[in-house]
Fold each of these.
Amino acid sequence: MKFFSLCIFAFSLAASSALAVEAAMADHAGIPADQLSFFEKNIRPALVEHCYQCHSAEAEKVKGGLTLDTRQGTVLGGESGHPGVTPGSLSESAIYTAMTWADEDMQMPPKTKLPDEVIAHFRKWIEMGAPDPREQIIPNASGGKREINMQEGRQHWAFQKPASSAVPDLKDESWARSTIDQWIQAGLEKAGLKPAPDADRRTLIRRIAFDLTGLPPTPDEVEAYVKDTSPEATKRVIDQYLDSSRFGERWGRHWLDIARYAESSGKEVNLLYPHAWRYRDYVIDAFNRDKPYDQFLKEQIAGDLMRYDNKRDQAEKIVATGFLAIGPKGHNNRDKRQFTMDLVDEQIDALSQSMLGLTLACARCHDHKFDPVTQRDYYALAGIFLSSETLFGTYRQLQNQNTSTLIELDPAAAQVSALAALPKADYATLKRNYDEALNTANNIRDQVRSMSSGQRDNNAQNFLRVRSSADRADAIKADLDQFHADGSPRTLAMGLLDKDSPVNSPLLIRGDLKQPGDTVPRGLVEVLCAEGEPRNISEGSGRLDLAFFIASKENPLTARVMANRIWLKLMGSGLVATPDNFGLMGQKPTHPELLDELALSFMEQGWSVKQMIREIMLSRSYQMASAYDDQNFAVDPDNKLHWRMNQRRLDAEAIRDAMLAVSGNLNLYPIDGSPVARAGEGREGLFSLFREISTQPYSYRSIYLPIIRDQIPEVLSVFDFPDASLVNGERDTTNVPGQSLFMMNNPQALSAADAFASRVAKHPGTPLEKLTYAFQLAFARFPTEQEMTSIKSFWMRFPQQAAEGKNTPSEKEKAQMATLSAFCQSLIASAEFRYLN
């Protein structure tokens, strides 16, 4: 236990008083929450398990003068003089060189190379800048093992139930239209700030349209709103977009970020998940139908265990549990028990961050370093998921050591299929090929078995012969299993089902399977339960209990976390700046009373996401302009008090979809399923899919593009598409040269500009009227006088240059189209096209 004590010693003082906790929070405020979580989950446990015995302050003898239990020692390195870790540089990080065994004279650990996954984690950690929250160990300091006091832990603001508060008296009672505005105004008045003026109508409808649908408003929609002077005009526009099917595609994508949605396993092997798309479509449909958020969560945790109205409803609830099955997995892990525990850990991590805003997975190897969450809490949850069977598909092949079946949905559920029916003759051929491949595999296996032990031992090729023949048969069976005997496609889904017999998990010392401790009953997280409230589960897996526990109005976190997520997507920044971490290392809310009011309103309104969105959008706070003010900026440069609307860059999907929309080429009715479903599971399917993604000019909305971990389409990755293996409540937003170069040179952008020009050319009117129409499509406004002067000058000069002195009618026409295309491309490539004001 001495290494465990050492691991937590640096934080024992921080737990001793509220003041110390605040100091720790301030010290680590510069480390993004996702990076802090990555270190605690992947780096610290590996250092404790593999390195501290020889390279820590409590080692009997520190080898090579290298200590890895402090941030300073890890960076400085040992007696060799080489830096241990150089943030951002693998080649200048001696620790990474040692663990990869790239240098024969420096191989650590010396006897057994670290698992590939651990090395990959260190690589990623160094490349992200080696964020490290650890403090220097203080010699002779008092302290020891951190003791978590649950009573004190429950005093943290996020663990207390939301409560309504009276709004302070306001100096100016004419500005606020709602409770939201009153709390915003109270904060501004306290700081001596004034709110920005209201946004103009054209700016506002563009903001509303993109926020609700991810698409630009049409010129007709803009003009109708501008001319509607009634008090209900804005509400009507909001309701119009809320009722659109495009709403679910927009807001479903927000949840898919949080749900780490992807259609492959990622990690070292990256196997395809051909049936992940069903979960994507379930999410889109749930947002379009405004499914109550508490019900939405319950179905994703335990939909297979819930009551259902009919077979279709049952199928939808089963598909919802795909949330727990679509995460990244290390399929090449030869230790089945380790694979299972890693799978459970990923499920706990995704569920806790997405729904509770807590990093519960940090308690896998030790009590949580900051939050009042014990290792027993973690293994109480682990038992729930160990009592459930995760069905993700994938057949056995050379690099896939961990396979699974899928859930077949009842035919009466009438679920769509991504595959067309297979003609009976083709099915018969496929069946015959499988039988032949299976016979071949069995014959080879029998031949090897008949050999003497010496022959088998001396012929390493025998293993590959047997395995390759079996893989070929399994690959054909994977295709065969997609169909019934009559050639009709089977409706299959990823998801969870309860095991026949529930199990409890032992508490694993340091998270090590080889060091099991006491068995922990399946149960709930103690700090979120009332003092003395029973939290152990005695029947079934416990997933249904967990679902109702998380989605309960009594849970202090669930409504707050989602209310904050909705506010973040509409306002550009969260009331809590760390949307996935409401724990002690997360940021405090800028407007705690407002956050509580939103959470209470959310629950009182039946957990309606649409109603919460409507409430925020109708506030004057949402409808403010993004105008700059010197005095306000001097006091609040980060706009934490919301004295103006944040100017926001569109996310990757909205930029791509907007290009297709203005060009007139956007297909709003994509085919069922996903290209991944038609590619199949195997490596050949993966390679063919990559070729398709790179060459196929998909015209449907970006949410339907195939999302393969580590192989994200360039049009998305260049505009900061998130890591599909992690919970992402807030995307990074960068403004780098590569983005401008993409809009200027990428074939997709050029193609969109040409199509945009063709659409504008067909618009009736003079050339200047056509160019004005292009402005309306791209920016939802008319050009200013100065812009019109520039447009006229451009239209007079550019066609002559494009014609290169040729005056034939056909050359003039080509020159005019080239001019129009260049003009349209300049609009698409502009900052205004990519930003909301």
Note: The CA atoms of residues 9 and 140 lie 11 Å apart.
Amino acid sequence: MPKQLFSDYPQDSQRFDEMFVSAGVPRPHYAGLYARLTRQSVTQVRDLFSEVDRQVRDNGITYNVYDEAEGGSRPWQLDPLPLIIPADEWRGIEQAVIQRATLFNRILADLYGPQTLFAEGRLPPALILGHPGFQRPAHGIVPRNGVHLNLLAVDLARAPDGRWWVINDRTQAPSGAGYALENRIITSRLHADLFRELRVQRLAPFFAALRDSIASYAPHDDGQTNTVLLTPGPYNETYFEQAYLARYLGFPLVEGQDLTVRDGCVWLKTLSGLRRVHAIVRRMDDDFCDPLELRADSALGVPGLMDVVRRGNVLLANSVGSSVLETGALTGFLPGLCEHLLGEKLAMPGAATWWCGEAPAMEDALEKADHLVFKSAMPQTHGRRFGPVFGEDLDKAGLAALSAKVRAAPREFLAQELVALSRVPVLDRQQMRHLVDRSAGMRVFAVATPEGYMVMPGGLARTSSEHDVRLLSSQRGGGSKDVWVCGEHAASPLSLLRRPVSATDLVRSGAGLSSRVVENLFWFGRYSERCDNLARYLRVALGRVTDNQETPIEWAALAAFGKQIGILPKACDERDAIRPLLRSVVDSSVAGGLASHILHLSRAGFQLRERLSTDNWRTLNALARSVEKKPHEDVGIYEAMALLDELITSFMTLAGFTLDGMTRDHGWRFLSLGRRIERLQFQTEAIETAMRMGEEGNPEWLLEISDSIVTYRSRYMARPEWLAVLDLLIADEANPRGIVFQTGGLRDYLKRLDESLGDMPDTGIEALHTRLLHLDPEKDFHPGSASLQEALATLRSASAELSNQISLHFFSHSDESVRVIA
């Protein structure tokens, strides 16, 4: 459908078109993609979007938008068409980025060392020393091998004449590499044949170099290197990417609370004690890293971290203080610095820039203000943020106001020539028969290696949300594309594997898991079991709610149990229970309801993003979507029952992943402890409530919420009777919903943990398990048994105490005597 597809694609001689030389004439490296597009039907185009959206949704790829109330759940925006760069053009980009990274590393070494650039007049001290990104505690620190800048991101834009220009530099904690990798995985599958034909260069060697170079630069004074990725937490805008990279690179994802400083080293808090950390890849801003020496109100960093860095006992990538290079005001000084420090001309200049801290530059910029864009030269200055102002948008009064603002604080402003961004074709989501043009830029990444800087062969292309957008920003709703660099030779496949593993590298234990991760696993187990329990209760209750006049005793017990577990309000009349039950299923604002707990489960899973398999995450993501924003006013019993059936199936799938897909390490044991404690508490409460019906009550509902009705019927083929029901739900060691099955599992898990970790808390589970096994069914298994009631109450109390003891014993490292492990 060539006419339809390109009918709305405009011609624009003022901007460079990445795909077309002229109307209907593609550039040589786009010829293959153009030919495929002209053969696409509307259905095939729709399928491209459907597949992209499915993978983004299933993989939970998100980007937080801080200014939106629901920005945290915003799906990542990816266009199915790649940005394609020919091999010869890429060589020039690659060389320019390598030069820039090398130059920046040399500048940082001087700024935090001898500061000869100030003494020789090559940089104005006010520009650097007055910048909030200059961290004085970092002065004098010389990192191992002299590498301050381990990872660099450079934002490029193409001018109308086809040349690439640098728009921004990201030197502090560059983001986007993980999104580039995820884009590649999705897009290469959409166009697999074209991907092979163009010999697109692969990204895996870049990430292998990142992982191995960090290890090579880290201290090696006590054996194998332990590298972690430090995140500000799950509410950071790029948390998905951080978790994704941590899993891909094999680095533990840690928060500041997971690390501690002792004896001049950084340690990771694990189940077994403290494990030495040799390298930290940080995604945290400079001033948040250490509240002792940097920003005192930071709750995200690691107290004492700067002292360890100063001692050379940990590698911090990138070095604290590197954000000072992110100011655009440095642009005008880079050509001279490049010739002075490297002895060569700057290969790729930035857009013409005027730093208003120099009086002549300020006057020149204000004279031509109507052709420039004014930005903050100190973007980190708290409380004085200054968004981009386009002079061409201002009238005389606006220009005068701008001039007054700049003159009042000239050092805080810079002016920059506005580059007309190149345009790329984007498939229109609203009208899938058309291509539209959008402004585009490209973020390119470089990593320091012992052989010099290496550039990712590709990157992250960013596109504007509208046709006439002049600046690109993901925070403003922009999209993305994969970047394909054509290869001159077929790309060799590479997996992210290191050198061959030796016997000393073998790992068979989960004792190195951080305490926070294990705590989240424990609560993930509890929430997953709690959701399953609540869903089964709701399904039974809604199935019986219309029969409450025929079985008043049973319904009264069901309603009482619903109040006890928080599904029904305490003051709820049993005859008016339908609406609270329905709301519990679908309304996440109901505290204690199923929908609310599903979101708790989802949040716990989000904290474990790097630990969950893709299949596991897809199921969890689908669960959260099933209750988010679900309208509840008009939901009927039939619809709610259908949803409960789906949810229970998903909960069983999650349980299956736990049973069949997780390694039986300590993480799995703590998750299983959480599940069994939760099931034990639910089952004991349910049995106690049912027993209050007395002999005349029918315990069939108890069997149903315990998922044991099929087993009972296959064994007895008769109406449920108390003796058999209580035997099945309490004393049958083969019933996974039975009480002794839970206590036996808890006993075994605690024993295994005690053998490897030692000093396990004693909450009497072993004795209670034995006591249950010695109950006399003939004497004790009936509703009026005082000994059974007392045993169940004691067990419920003991399980709650066990949960508390586990939290105190394993999830807190306040005890200074905690042992250190190698």
Note: Residues 497-508 have pLDDT under 50 and may be disordered.
Amino acid sequence: MSNLAPPTKPPRGVKHPKETSGLLMSVIRTLSASESNEQRDREKAKLEKEYKRSDQRLDELVSLHYQDHTQVMQLFGKLSARVTTSREKIHAVKENLQACKLLLRCRRDELKKLWLEGIEHKHVLQLLEEIDQLREVPAQLTAFLAKKHYLHATQLLVSALSLGDGSLEGVEALREVRTELQAKKQQLHSRLLAELTRHLYIVSTQDVVALRRQGSGRDGNPLNSPFQRAGELRGSARVSKTRLTLLDVSVPFPNASSPRVGMNPGPNHTTAGDESDNVEEDVDAADPEAKSQHFMAILVESMALLNSVPDTVESIKIQMQTELLAIIKRTTRQLLDLSQQPTHSLGAHSTSLLLELMQTVFDQFRQVATAHASVLRSFARAADKHHIDVRLYEMPDVWSKVQAVLQLLLTDYLDIQNMAGDPQQAPTSFSESTSDISVYFARRRPPRQKRVPLFKFDYSSHALSINSYLKEQRTSSAKEYSQAGQSRQREKLLVCTPDPRNITQIFIPLMKFIEEIEHAIGCTPGNPCTLNAFLSDYIKEVFLGRHHMMVAASIESATKSLDAWRTTTSPELMSDLGLSRPLLQSTVMVERCIQDLRELMQALPVYAEHFLSIICNILRNYRETCQAAYRGIVQPDSEDKRICSAAWLKDEDISRFIKSLPNWTDLQAQKVTYRRRRPLRREETTEEESPEDVRQRNMKEAEILASNLGEGGINAHEILSDVGQLKGLAQLQESMEWFSTSILLFASELPSAPASSPRVHVASVGIPAMPETSVRALMQLAQEFEELANTCLLVLHLEVRVQCFHYLLPRANNYNRLVGGVDSQEPDPKVLELSRVLISIDEAMNSSLQPRKLKYIFEGLGHLIAKILISSAQYIDRIDERGIQKMCRNIFALQQTLTNITMAREIALDHARHYFELFYLAPEEILSGVMEKGPQFSELEYMNAFQLVHRSQAEPDYGAVNTHLSRLSDILGEVGITV
């Protein structure tokens, strides 16, 4: 084997011969199976050839691998020599170990004594080092506390206490140090609790107050005050961090299962757990309190190391309500101080300050709740990590204290204690409409005795009555204050005067905050929180009942007092209301009640439907009162007497006809246009029109009235002869129109919703959607007031015309005096009386109605008077020159009166004067004039003129009359024009 060359790899490109073993076996099988010698010889020759080839291949392989084989053999020889040497060395070491073992066995006792002495010296050195460390602990602890590195201080103190109670327990010289450390432990616990309380209630809320202070005095609008703007600026940035955290009651507390904190903290950081705990204290930080939540987690971890978590939790629960009340007190004092500054926009002790107080307190309570949620997670993590058995409070407990504090705050500002003891506050049934208010609208009824309420508030059967709740609240508060060692009496520091109406200023933000509380504690829709129940009980049991009585008293004063039906004459009030004419005081007072209820609908949107039902009831009863007042004017006590103008309007056909006339439609068009432009201000818009337009507009009305009232005459009891009654109608009309416009505007601004839509449960800004039926009822009431106003105006319009018929229509040959007698330069007494009546009516209407309405009343009156005077020719027996002059003087007097009233020349009366001037002419001259100038009057009027001319002759010729009438008919037929 040693002569064989080491095998080497064949060079690249050399092909290995195919395996020949298969060929050999094949040859052997062939030889054994062959039968002839020749075949065997051939196979043998082939076999020999293959053997030679194999031998040659073997030589080649040996020559190729010879060098490698030689090298392997040399290495093997070297390794064999080294192994032999090592065996010899191991054998020598084994012999030496046996010798050492023998020597150590001989010196065992001496070595053991030396080992024990070394251990004792080492323990003594360790004790001395621990004593030195323990003596330095107070100074180090003071240094840590001065820098507020509480976790380092706690770890140091716990480590020192464990040393003092451990190996150094028997050292008498350290007794004072141990006593001092125990005192330090109590002081540290108190300080940690104080720091945690400060961060929970002061540090967490300081951003709210700071931002509100920075924005103070920049805006005069209380609803956009700096406090509110600061809250809005914070809102977007705080939603994801604060509100979502405090509203999420399912946030899991982290499960910390890390080992205890080491007793020897590093030079820069102290880790109070593993990475999941993430509670580290950086001693190099400039401000350890920069991150409040992290700082509170360090405080909780320190308390866990001191094993004071149960006491801390109990202290937090006891002090929670006191600290929340302190927040309110601090905020109140800050607001009062801020309101005294000259640059501040809010006045001291105003309701705007109360709204600011509520907004600020709500923001601070949200921050406090967020801080408590963070502390609870830290407590849960520390309890799980250090295996502390403690019963933690929960977020619903925090919100419960918040609700209790807000209830005490509302008790002060809403004056609930005084209201609850008021014997006049009787609860009202709120499940049905307030129909009892109708008794306060009745007119001309004897005074009713004041009823004693059947039930007082103190004995309300409601499960959560205000009285019982206040007693329970005061009792529980007293217990908590006694436990905390504080007085039961709280210092009353208020930003405004206690008043039940303060609820209107704070209801919407308060309800929004209540919604947040209910969402945070998981209240169901049918199970509201205690604060919601408290507020609902107060509004239902106290506020609404009190407001009902106030509304009833106001309405009673508006309709029953001596001044109720007088007009408002105060210039300031008329300017505030945008009035150009005075209104009835009762209307203004009722409208103020409506506006007050409207403001309550906006301030208390949850009860908007209830207030709307009260408004509808007030309007229904006031409508009946006003209609009774109208009937008292136009319907005398005696049934056999009637006012002609009012009786006419009862006829639907006549009323429809008058309302279809152009002057009425034009008046309504002006009112509609005016409403669209500015609904609540009375603008006078008069447009100049041509006399022809006026004549065409009023001619039809004059003809219809003359045809209906021209027969039979109008008696004295059928007219309103008292101008005071006419003025009362005018004032009622103006008031009703203004009142209906106000109601229509209010109804048009109300959002309506189908009756099947869900009702409002949470307050929202503005009036919520009202049931469509209620809105329609309000619109219907407004239209009824408008119809009453229209009726009054139509009565005035007709009454002036009816009185013209009463004074001018001839009865019982009144015009016989137009012939003979003493010539008088004065007009007829009836004409003078009519002029006096028209002037009186104008004076009364001018101070009560707008010019456009006066125009409607007096416009066209000249056409009617002319029509009456011209038609009176058929009732005159005879007329002479003096009689014609008398009629002309009558016409001139009436024309002058109407001109002074309408400030326009009454052309229609010129037409009437021209008619009576025809009587100066002979019949032939009249016919000639018709042929030359055309007809100026109607055929009937010419016929009446011819007949009067012939009756006035000494010996009337009736045949000539017929001839003249026949010629008149022929002339008018030829002309083809009929006036």
Note: The two ends are 164 Å apart (CA to CA).
Amino acid sequence: MNTNLAWLNEYLNQDLDLSQAAVIALGERLERTSVEVDSVFNLAQGQDGLVVAKVLSVKEHPDSDHMVITQVDAGESEPIQIVTGAPNVAEGQLVILAKVGAHIIDRESGKLVKIKKAKLRGEESYGMLSALQEIGFDNKIAPDPIEKGIYVFDPKSGVQPGDDALEALGMLDPIIDTDLTPNRTDMLSMRGVAYELAAILDCQATMPTFQLSEGSQKSADLIQAEVTDEKLADQFGLRVIDNVQVGPSPLWLQRRLWNAGVKPVNNLVDVTNYLMVLFGQPLHVYDYDRLPEKKLTVRLAKDGEKFTGLDEQEYELRPNQDIVISSGDQVLNLAGVLGGQAAEVTEKTKRVVIESASFNPSLVRAAARRHTLHTGASSRFERGIDPSQVESVLDQAAALLADLAKGQVAKDAVYGARHAYQARQVEISVDRINQILGTDLQADEIASIFKRLAFEFENKDGNFIVAIPGRRPDISIPADLIEEVARLHGYDNLPTAYITGQTTPGKLTSRQRQIRASRRVMESLGLNQAISYALTTPEKATRFNANKAAKLVTLDYPMSSDRTTARQNLLSGLLDDVAYNVARSVHDIALYEQGRVFLAKGEKEQPAEIEHLAGVLTGSLVRSSWENSRNVKEVDFYDLKGIVEKYLAEIGMPAVRFEATDRHEAMHPGQTADIYGGDHYLGFVGQIHPAFLQKEKLPQVFGFELDLQSIIDYSQRGQNYEVISRYPQVSRDLAILVDEKVTNADIQNAIEKTAGQHLVESKVFDVFTGGKLPAGKKSLAYQLTYQDKNDTLLEADVNDDVEKIVTVLQQEFNAEIR
């Protein structure tokens, strides 16, 4: 939420200090008391030298068919000549002028650039006439596309030549951007922020009043409202306004919208967005004459219904789940989320219907997630709006449209559902507050805090009965009031309690050490770690589980249809990872995962969480090169069996044996073995069943799954092992030209003697003779691989070592570096 502090000043009886230092300090205070502050900024972003100018004359450029020469009055003694290509420039306009020496934001780099005097096709230009996008406005908030041309002030805006354009556009207004928690819906409105800052600063907030003048014709004679079930909307009101004049909003209104991050559209739409930002109450306006039937109905979507939104996208509605607003059989809105094109207001609109409502937050939230539509309206409805102001905001919208669009308001509003707000009563005692906070606050101090929050309350001998206003739906229980007292009293003022007792140094348990050792060993054996979701489908959850008696653990409210069940194995997740990589042309895959599986004895019992270790192989373990191309082969059962044997030996598991088995349905019956440590079952290893691989369009895959908990329980303690370094390798290619008589063995010996301690491998990968090489010469290409067992190698260290090798090869073999 972008909060314009200059606008907010109108609602506080204490003027805020709008200097940069004071605004930053206020943001820090707000963050320590209420919500997180993302940033403090203004739209100017350091720009200067922008003034309002009046176009005095426009004439064609003698050497250009798209540029013109203008004379503008910038409040100085003499007119200023500006050459521009703006297609909409005309005499008499009030425009934005970036004078010579001004700084504006470059659209491509985002950096400030200085405006200089220029000569365009032989004509001098002393500045630039600007569109809003050329002075930092995003297309999302600029009223017109940049292709339309420069920004033109409304003659009624009150600006004069020479005025500071940044100030006239509100670009110098300080803005605090807050990141809200889901419960603080009040902070999604200027009204809510005003009350919050009034509480923090110990002043008063007062909201603007309005006067509504109604005509003699009744709204009930023009429109009807219906709510089929009040569980969908407990309030739904309409007003009709006739003879509206659609046009741009006045500058004061546009300023407030674009500073709030909202794009001005026209006076009808802008009024609804303005009041949403001001009060947190979303509104919608319909073209009355485009309604199929003079009745608006709030209902659930029906089978097969579709809806085209204002974003020009078509949405297939979820029957009996999405709340819609319809007229006749036509769906007009996805209620609380997005308006539709069917009754959209246009420049030809003459009569409108304004809607103000309170929709079911849960259904709005579900619809927004289902259709991936997160709008300003949905973000407010799904958190819960203030039900006490639904009617008053509707009336204020009508009053504003009567003023700004010259409309005539029909008498009275029409309601399909209407409920008077009853404030919640929450009781809390002074003793309870002090007990929880560890304070010794007096009743009058607590009463002062409730007054600052503008809460009505009654104090009966230290027992407070507080009436919660509708703007604070987050407060419903005594603990919420305790939190309010704590944050306004000041978290820093709460007493500090020190922990007493003997301290002990932290260390890993034996179980934790074994789990970490398992990961290190797997990585040393060439497998990469994968992490899969613990939630999956029932089919995947049980596919490789050898314990058929275990019951499924399912969620009552899953986040999606493929995340409903707690896994009983790790192999299913690893196969998903294999499928993901294969689909992206990765053929050689070696993965392992260490994590928990969830096995329940009964449907209502708490599941046991058991540590497992699983891995998969597919493709080849050996990288192909010219010297070993004949030795490269696809992995097989024995490759994976060897990895499992090596792991169990390293981890300290004695007397391991493998027994052929066909009891695993998802594994190949002829290439699968159960693994035992003594008499204890540890897991299985083998090839994934070909039928499954064919169905999933996967190559031959081998996998294993071990009960890591059993391995930890039965493995020998104190086993020592050494693993391969987990730090990355660095490779360098070196090509040299030497005499044919020089052997590769001589070169290799020289490299190994010269290289430092971090060279782990040197191999020749190319030999070339003949061609354009000198007679009696041959070319040898080597790959040098470096690795440090204890740290990440630096490029500079590797480069120094390679230079030493090059020097020795040049001296001993007269080698030439290619």
Note: The domain at 429-456+463-493 is CATH 3.30.56.10 (Phenylalanyl-tRNA Synthetase; Chain B, domain 1).
